Amino acid sequence: MSAVSITPAIITVLHKTISVTPGQLAGHVAPAIRNYNPGIQICIGTNANFAQLNEQKPLPENCDMVCYSIHPQEHASDNTTLLENLQAQSYTVKSAKHFATDKRIWVSPVNIQRRFNANIENFETQSYGDKIPSQFDSRMMSLFGACWTAGSIKYLGESGADGITYYET
Q1: Mean per-residue pLDDT for 142-157?
Q2: pLDDT in the model for residue 117
Q3: Exposed, middle or buried by CB within 10 Å (0-12, 13-18, 19+), for 92?
C-alpha cells in the first residue's frame, strides 16, 4: 500500500490572543504558504463573531478569503430570538463583502450555541471526559435545530457566502 499525499486546500490564519488576524501576521505567513504551495487558499479573519471582524476589519490583500463565525445567542437564547436572528445572518455576509472587496466570505462555524465569550477569549475551552461541551445546545438534535439550520443555509446562501461550515465537531 502506498502512502497517500494530502495537500490542504485552505489554511485559515488566526492569532492566539488577538481576535482578528493582524495584517502583519497575514503579511508574514501568506508568502511562506504560497511559497510552499501557490494553490493553497489563505483565509484570515476571526474565530469569534462578525462583530469582532466588523470592528477591526482585517487587511485582506494577503489572503483569498475572510472568515468569521455566527451564532444567534449573544443576548438571548429563546426559540423566537433564534428564529428572528436568521435573516440577520445575510446582512453580515453583505457587510463583509463590502469591506473585503474582492475576497470570498467563509462563515465558519455556524452554531446555535455560543462557543465562547468573544469579549473575554478567542477560542473555546476544551472539555474532557464525558462532560458535555458548553457550546453544545440540545436543540441541535431536534426538529427545531433542523429547521433553524435550513433557514441559516437559506439566508447565508442567498447572501452570497462562498463557504459555510456548520456545527464544528
Answers
A1: 94
A2: 61
A3: buried
Whether the pLDDT of residue 53 is over 80: the answer is: yes
Residues in the chain: 169
Q: Which residues pair with 42 in a beta bridge?
A: 11
Rounded-to-integer distance, Cα 59 and Cα 55, Å = 12
Backbone angles phi, psi at 153, to 5 degrees: -60, -40
Q: How far is CA 45 from CA 15, 60, 76, 96, 103, in A?
A: 9, 9, 25, 10, 11
Q: What is the pLDDT of residues 83-101, one digit of tens each?
A: 999 999 999 999 999 999 8
Can you give the pLDDT at residue 67? 94
**What is the structure's pLDDT at 127?**
64
Cβ contacts of residue 115 below 8 Å, gap of 6+?
69, 71, 109, 124, 135, 168
Burial letters 25-55, b for 16+ CB under 10 A, else e: bbeebbeebeeeeeeebbbbbbbbbbebbee
Q: Please give the angle made by the CA atoms of 49, 45 and 134, to the nearest 5 degrees.
A: 40
Q: Which residue has the cell 492569532?
A: 15
